[in-house]
Amino acid sequence: MKFFIDTANLDEIKKGVAMGMVDGVTTNPSLVAKEGRPFHEILKEICAVVDGPVSAEVVSLEADGMLREARELAAMSDKIVVKIPMIVEGMKAVKQLTAEGINTNVTLVFSPAQALLAAKAGATYVSPFIGRLDDISQPGMDLINDIMTIYRNYGFQSEVIVASVRHPMHVVEAALIGADIATIPFKVIAQLAKHPLTDIGMEQFLSDWEKRAQ
Ligand code: E4P
């Protein structure tokens, strides 16, 4: 399973890379806006420190505008994956970008039907948002199960990025289902390492070590 880090914050990305846990990065307009710096400047810096795909989202609502933005973003680095919203205009853009050899990540996916369309359009990646479904009392993980079943049924090549991850169990459950990728906030990557018995065990080992024969 690949881990992407879900942030536009360079410090978090560098920490995740140092841990060896970053196979790629996903950003979105909200995450970029939080950084208070120009979009392209942030993307260039991310591409310089990450050895893997970096998702950058378009904001146009029509296919032509999406294509213009996408080509400009893709020209910045081979690592750029253009994030396209799951709307009909978006699917037109994905079809064309796939034909041009530009990698895409279809975002804001909330149903198996949407994921089916994205795969048929040729998306490189598809991002179902599980946390936002959980937030409205719909089990997000059921969506991952359904999408994986559909993609396996037909051999679709689109990789599933489990997105809107809120806690470690989201990652573990996604791994049990066999999802290709989880895009994870830095805080949750750090939480994955934690176990109280590890801390207690370490404390015990170190205290016993101090009492050893010299
Ligand atoms: C994924 O690509 C999105 O950036 C992200 O996972 C959205 O997460 P949120 O629901 O916590 O905003």
CATH superfamily: Aldolase class I
Helix and strand run: EHEHHEHEHEHEHHEHEHH
Distance between the termini: 45 Å
- Reported by name, the CATH topology is TIM Barrel
What is the number of strand segments? 8
- Poorly predicted ranges: none
Integer average pLDDT: 98
The percent range for helix content is 40-55%
Please write out the topology:
Blueprint: E1 2-6, H1 10-19, E2 24-26, H2 29-35, H3 39-49, E3 54-57, H4 63-76, E4 80-85, H5 88-99, E5 104-109, H6 112-121, E6 125-128, H7 130-135, H8 140-154, E7 159-162, H9 168-177, E8 181-184, H10 186-192, H11 196-210
Parallel strand pairs: 1-2, 1-8, 2-3, 3-4, 4-5, 5-6, 6-7, 7-8
Helix pairs in contact: 1-3, 4-5, 6-8, 8-9
Bound molecules: erythose-4-phosphate.
The site of erythose-4-phosphate has 11 residues, from helix 7.
Structure in words:
This protein has 214 residues and is α/β, with parallel strands linked by helices. The chain has a single domain (2-210), classed as TIM Barrel, CATH 3.20.20. 55% of the residues lie in helices and 17% in strands. The chain is built from eleven helices and eight strands. It has helices at 10-19, 29-35, 39-49, 63-76, 88-99, 112-121, 130-135, 140-154, 168-177, 186-192, 196-210; strands at 2-6, 24-26, 54-57, 80-85, 104-109, 125-128, 159-162, 181-184. Strand 1 (2-6), helix 1 (10-19) and strand 2 form a beta-alpha-beta unit. Helix 1 (10-19) packs parallel to helix 3, helix 4 packs across helix 5 (88-99) and helix 6 (112-121) packs parallel to helix 8 (140-154). The longest helix is centred in the last third of the chain and has 15 residues, at 140-154. The chain is globular. The model has no long low-confidence stretch (mean pLDDT 98). Bound molecules: erythose-4-phosphate. Erythose-4-phosphate binds next to helix 7. Erythose-4-phosphate is lined by residues 6, 26, 28, 107, 127, 129, 131-132, 163-164, 183.
